[in-house]
Every structure is written in structure tokens, then in C-alpha cells.
Amino acid sequence: MNDKIFWLVLVVVVGGAVGVFMLSGGKTPDAAMIGQMYEDVGNRHLPPDQVGQYNTVPATSGDHGERVEYGEYSQGLSDYDALHGLEHGAVAFWYNAGTITEDELSQVRTTFESLNVGKKYLAPRSNLENNVKLAMTAWTYLLTQEEIDTEEMITFFNGHVNQGPELALNLRRLDT
User: Fold this and answer.
1) What is the SS3 assignment for 22?
2) Measured between alpha carbons, how far apart are the two ends of the chain, in Å?
3) Which residues pair with 122 in a beta bridge?
4) Which of 18, 35, 71, 94 is an S-S bond match for 141, by CB 3.0 to 4.6 Å?
5) Where are the beta strands (DSSP E) in 9-166?
6) pLDDT digits (tens, 9 = 90+) for 82-140
């Protein structure tokens, strides 16, 4: 093999490895997949007046709308709106606005902001069980916390980010 072919093959192999690493959000493939797995109930894109039923609260799969921008939503975020992001590998952090303390919410926000992959949502939720302070969802996975555990939050995020059935695309923000 001549030198030009050797270097070309080397560049292609290294470039491919870097590309896979970047598409995975820098996450290692052996990250823990913690949380309860639920049946995938589909991923149809429907108009808002045709929202289907979900098999978990918050939803982990199901009929949903168009893409919305990742980030924090102070007025809440519906399952219908968040599911498209989950389908593209996002992770949602849902805090129980009725039971979480300001100190606990500060811990959640600090952890949320420290995660270096932007495919995530943070939003209040009014229909979580009273004993649940935080729920996290990814495509077909749900994790609930009765006490805030930042290490578990990080483990769930790292195990599920970029694991949706579709790749992420450009998103729009709802509240702008």
C-alpha cells in the first residue's frame, strides 16, 4: 500500500470515529440505561386537535406535534410538545411544582445546566404523584425521584441522551 492510500484510509477511519462520537453527544456507548422501560406506543406526528393517549405520566412515547426548542420552560410543556424532542434523543426533567422546594429545584437546575449536551427540557408539571419531586423521561423510559438525587439524574441523562429512534434537527421555541 502506498503512502497516499495509507493516509487516506487513516483519515477516513479517524474522521468516522470522531463523527460517531460527536453524533452521540460525546456519550460513551456503555452508559447505564437506568429507569423503567415502557412499551413504545408509536410516534405519529399529529395536529394538536388529534392528540392520542399515552401509557405513562409524563409520556415516554406516543403521538406528538412539531419540534420545539430544547431548554427550560417556566410555564410548563405538554407531552404532545416534548415527545418530538424525546423521539430525537432528548431527555426531559419534569419537576413537581407543588412539592419541590426552592433548594431542591436549585439542585435540579444546576444539574440540568451542567449537562453538556443541549438536547434536554426542564419544565414544571402539575400532574405528578404527590410523593414524586422529579420525573425524567426519554424515549420509552421513565425515572421518578421522591428525593432529589443528582447523581442518578446524571446517570439517566447520560444513558438516554441521543437514544431516540430519530436524529435531532433544528427546533423552534414555544414561548418566544
Assistant:
1) helix
2) 57
3) 72, 93
4) 35
5) 36-37, 71-72, 91-96, 120-125, 134-138, 141-145
6) 999 999 999 999 999 999 999 999 999 999 999 988 999 999 999 999 999 999 999 99
Q: What's the grid cell of residue 108?
A: 435540579
Task: Report d(CA 21, CA 96) in Å as an integer.
Answer: 34
What is d(CA 79, CA 3) in angstroms, rounded to the nearest whole number?
A: 55
Rounded to 10°, the helix 102-114/150-160 angle is: 40
Listing from the earlier edge strand, what are the strands of the sheet with 120-125? 36-37, 141-145, 134-138, 91-96, 120-125, 71-72
| Cα 4 to Cα 38: distance, rounded to the nearest angstrom | 51
Distance CA 73, CA 174 (A): 9
What would the grid cell of residue 120 be? 434536554
Q: Rounded to the nearest 5°, which phi and psi values hold at 133? A: -95, -30
Write down the residue that cell numbers 453524533 correspond to.
Answer: 23
Please give the model's pTM, rounded to 2 decimal places.
0.78
